[in-house]
Amino acid sequence: MPAAGPTPLLRRTGGADGPLRIGVLVSATGANLRTLIDLQHRERDRFQVALVASHGTRSPALALAREHGIEAWPGDFDARCGTASAATTPEARAEYRRRARQWHDGLDARMAAWERENGELDLVVLAYHRWIEGNLLTRYHGRMINQHPGDLTVLDGENRRVLIGNDAVATAMRLGHTTTRTSCFLVDGTHDGGAVLCQGPPVPVRPGVDARAQELDQKRLSDRPCLEWSVRAFAAGSLALAAGTHPDASAVVLADGAPLPLGGMRLTAASIPEGS
User: Fold this and answer.
1) Whose C-alpha in 79, 90, 94, 173 is 20 to 30 A from the C-alpha of 69?
2) Which residues form a coiled coil (predicted)?
3) What are phi and psi of 14, to 5 degrees?
4) Is 256 exposed, middle or buried, given 0-12, 13-18 or 19+ CB atoms closer than 10 A?
């Protein structure tokens, strides 16, 4: 039986000549959303932020979207599902996951209905603080990406990713890392385990800085170029997945047919796109 060939990541729904239509799921300030809006303003023929949705009502990113004329949906996730931190028993965690999946399946159905009226999305970008399971992952398989504030190439002795979860920057600093960086990866059913497309430039840890300040530095210096490269690569149709895997079991990413190392395209400060 012949070996399986590469799997292209991009399924353009609006035609090859139209802009890349992007949906964004947001939680906080909207820094990544602003990056995408800036791309749209600079290159309207290539990028369109078409829809923004949040799990909550207070995200400043919702106001940013509306300010730029983008349809923006608040959510009621915590009221409907509770919080992961409050689910302290196995039974409570199972119930939380059931409710969270049900809530996200509802969001998926709403997005599907919106797409029937407004045209399909090509790419979904997460700047989002909730785990996603269910139909939303299935429908956007291979075209949903997440910005993660940790270097996902750091593996333990069993080839498991070390800097996953919400406290990746603090964990890196506690482990004595002298730099931190952002990883952009394909979202799948794992927790921060998908194929890494790109890593932003490494950001030095300044003496005496705390994790919060380091993360703000990282947002400015690593998040933006990482997201820009990834979205541009999607728009160009240059990304695919190879049949092989890396030691952490994530798929090998191809850029213009060439296999990338674990971590995908690793940017340096010198490779930050102009205007970032």
Assistant:
1) 79
2) none
3) -100, 10
4) exposed
Q: What is the CATH number of the domain that holds 197?
A: 3.40.50.170
The reported pLDDT for the residue numbered 18 is 85
pLDDT at 204 over 90: yes
Question: Is 77 inside a domain boundary?
Answer: yes
92 located within any domain:
yes
E strands within 27-117?
Answer: 47-54, 71-73
Residues with Cβ within 8 Å of residue 130, at least 6 apart in sequence: 27, 55, 77, 100, 104
What are the residues whose beta carbons fall under 8 Å from the beta carbon of 227, sequence distance 6 or more? Answer: 32, 35, 36, 125, 147, 184
85-98: pLDDT as tens digits: 898 999 999 999 99
| pLDDT number for residue 189 | 87
Question: Rounded to two decimals, what is the model's pTM?
Answer: 0.90
Range 69-96 burial, b when 16+ CB lie within 10 A, else e: ebebbebebeeebeebeebeeeeeeeeb
Q: Which amino acid is at 133?
A: E
CB-based contacts of 85: which residues, under 8 Å, 6+ apart? none
- Confirm whether 58 is domain-assigned: yes
Numbers of helices and strands, H then E, in the chain: 8, 14
Within a domain: residue 1? Answer: no
- Domain count of the chain? 1
- pLDDT higher than threshold 80 for residue 179: yes
User: How confident is the model at residue 11, as a pLDDT?
Assistant: 54
